[in-house]
Specification:
This protein is an all-alpha fold. The chain is built from ten helices and no strands. It starts with a helix and ends with a helix.
Amino acid sequence: MQLNLGKIEYSYYLKDRNIHNLNQAENYFDKAIEIDNLFWDALWRKADCLDDINKYEDALTIYNFIIDNNKNCGAEIYNSRGIVLRNLKRFSDAVQDLNKCLSFNSKIGDKQRYYNNLISFHIADDKFEDANYYCVEAHNLFPSNPKILSNLTFTSEKLGKKEFDEMVVVENYKKCILNDPT
């Protein structure tokens, strides 16, 4: 009975998060976690909610608790914690979490997102050489990803690299648009 009540509270959170009532969503999480304090998904989503309302330290505390106590947590938890660490300007720790994400056997779309996050963390920290390294690695794996290609072009220009000829970039970008017009 208690677990079902926790899931009911959790479902209210999902509804409120979709309509951006994050403070109310946080209350639903507290109720779900009060009923089952090891309801991992509720804990994780509460941390996401706290991140959304800029309560980064509180979110980090929950992510750390999950990682320390749930041996089955996967790449998504590390990705979420990495985003919070980036928001706290702890770039080195954020990059470490994103590298951990890449070590998991993840779906292609998730892996592309982890690379994009890792690249953006390095760019935000003005580490263009590192960002470019991951851009090249990601571009070799996902040549039709427009965001990766855009970041590859950006970081290559920042570093003054000439190996990405403008015509090749334009042709690749056209292919990306044809494959994914978003």
